[in-house]
Amino acid sequence: MQRIELFLNIYKCKQFVASDLQKLKNDVSQAADKLHCTKEYLETDRKDVCLQFMEIMQKMRRNELLMLHLLEVGSHNATANGKTAQSDTPQSMPLKELQNDHPSKMHLTDYSKSPFAARSKAKDMHFYDFDADITEEDFETIPKYLKGRMQLSELVTFLQKEVIKCFEEKYTLMYKHRKAVTNQHDLTAWKNYNSMQANFPDYKFITQDDLSHKSGKALDKKSYSKLQMLRHLHILQEVRSEGTVYFLWTYSK
């Protein structure tokens, strides 16, 4: 009887609290939507800040290398000028390469305007244009039938030591000034590379032959499978034209 009386008392109050309960329900729904939007905004903002930080660090590193190089060149030029003033038979002092424990690294556009591109002496160059990362999450997206028993470390090694190295060596030569290419073999390659670039003006590329020359042997089935994985990860794009297999660099962070 007490429960029945309690129910009747609550039922009598329904008309007074129904609208408040409905309003409370709507407020909860709106609050949940706003909380979700806030979370998405914060996540997007965090990613943008991280990207900006990485770009700033890359620019700072590039500027540091250029400043060190200019300081060294200025020092040698001052020494050469001093010797010229003291001697009736001046001798020109060749510019020295930037000496440090790490290979030079810069953007291709900066390299093409730097003193390195005007020198015939080969230098081990690295470029930010060919930076690429493969995370565990990326690797897990590759179909099982394609990667088989291959480990992430093996694919990363192939990317760094074979593919990226091939791109860097090719574009170190391609972006040299014409007068700096004195070796006949390099000159022939320089002309071929630059004529082929007209086929893909918006992309950097290597060919299957470039990779074969780099490794000293024809691409085997395992190497080609690794290239297909890099295609799956949108690092490379394969294009066939006039009997030549091209691999375009399509990676973007």
UniProtKB/TrEMBL annotation:
InterPro entries: SKA1, SKA1_MBD_sf. One of its GO terms (molecular function) is microtubule binding. One of its GO terms (biological process) is regulation of microtubule polymerization or depolymerization. It holds the Pfam family SKA1. GO terms for cellular component: mitotic spindle; outer kinetochore; spindle microtubule. Belongs to the SKA1 family. PANTHER family: SPINDLE AND KINETOCHORE-ASSOCIATED PROTEIN 1. This is SKA complex subunit 1.
